[in-house]
Design a protein that fits this description.
The protein is of the alpha+beta class and 294 residues long. It has two domains: 164 residues, Butyryl-CoA Dehydrogenase, subunit A, domain 3, CATH 1.20.140.160; 118 residues, Nuclear Transport Factor 2, Chain: A (Roll). The protein contains eleven helices and six strands. It has a six-stranded mixed beta sheet with strand order 2-1-6-5-4-3. β5 and β6 form a beta hairpin. It starts with a helix and ends in a 12-residue tail after the last strand. The relative contact order is 0.12. The model has no long low-confidence stretch (mean pLDDT 88).
């Protein structure tokens, strides 16, 4: 292959490879590092060993992501406070129409699902991502992971059962999530506790990720009263001018808070039966580069 052809082939597959790596690792920076390393492996590979570029690229990307995942999992054991995936802007592009395929991709990259994936073994996570998010056949996954097809099917079954047990059991129209997010912002900014409590489910949870580098709760807060009072205290304690932007992050509507034009906080909610069931807050500055609007 000529160099420009090598580049073209890789770039054609880059969005898929980045998607696989991000779902495996939960951080855009780690995913980009893995994809860059895959590019180096791709350019130095013996062309006689590359019968199908897509299969080759998925194989090396998955194996590199597995290696990186085992490394970062050890680091996360000493992480300060709750750990959440790094928010990313989701744009599945014109090649993915507004169909069930788009909904599947959005679901597989949601914060709720990525949090559940953290509890899987690295191999289970790899199988789940390749099978459930991208629809790879079991035989191709087996080749990528150097496992038997029977073993891959077992891993897929365990991963699917675990995710089904841990993921939210409800689907919400994005317009409803956007509406509740806007009302949530208005109630918090207006200091209206009653209005805020009216939006929260009784067993609502608030999960904040600061990595110890910004102010955020170091434990998960539970119950409408505790979550509502915490959010109200935060909003009333602000002494700076903020800018708010609504964006699509991780397949759903989210609120980006900017301070002096720079990303400071990402809010995203889960909704059930018309009430906010979970509030995710990402404030670790290392995790906000992917949503930088500067």
């Amino acid at each position: 292959m000529a160099t420009d052809t090598l580049t073209d082939v890789f770039e054609d597959h880059r969005p898929m490879l980045t998607g696989v790596a991000y779902r495996m690792l939960g951080r855009a920076a780690d995913a980009e590092d893995v994809v860059q390393e895959a590019w180096l492996r791709w350019t130095s590979a013996d062309r006689a060993d590359v019968r199908e570029p897509r299969a080759f690229l998925v194989r090396i990307t998955t194996r590199l992501a597995l290696d990186r995942l085992r490394q970062v999992q050890a680091r996360r054991e000493s992480y300060v406070g709750p750990w959440l995936p790094e928010p990313v802007v989701t744009d599945f592009g014109p090649t993915v129409p507004d169909t069930a395929e788009r909904a599947m991709l959005a679901d597989s990259v949601s914060l709720a699902v990525l949090v559940v994936l953290e509890s899987l073994s690295p191999l289970e996570r790899a199988v789940f991502v390749l099978r459930e998010a991208f629809g790879f056949p079991f035989g191709e996954i087996a080749t990528a992971l150097d496992r038997s097809e029977a073993a891959v099917r077992q891993l897929a079954g365990r991963a699917r059962r675990h995710v089904d047990e841990g993921r939210p059991r409800y689907d919400v129209d994005p317009a409803e999530r956007r509406d509740l997010t806007e009302r949530f912002l208005a109630a918090a900014a207006g200091g209206d506790l009653d209005q805020l409590l009216a939006l929260l489910a009784p067993d609502v949870r608030l999960v904040g990720d600061s990595g110890g580098k910004s102010k955020a709760p170091l434990r998960i807060i539970e119950s409408a009263d505790k979550v509502g009072r915490f959010l109200l205290a935060v909003s009333q304690g602000l002494d700076t001018v903020l800018e708010f932007r609504f964006m699509e992050l991780n397949g759903g509507p989210a609120l980006l808070v900017l301070v002096d034009g720079k990303p400071d906080t990402v809010f995203q909610i889960e909704v059930r039966d018309g009430y906010i069931q979970c509030v995710y807050i990402v404030r670790n500055p290392d995790k906000l580069h992917a949503v930088d609007v500067g």
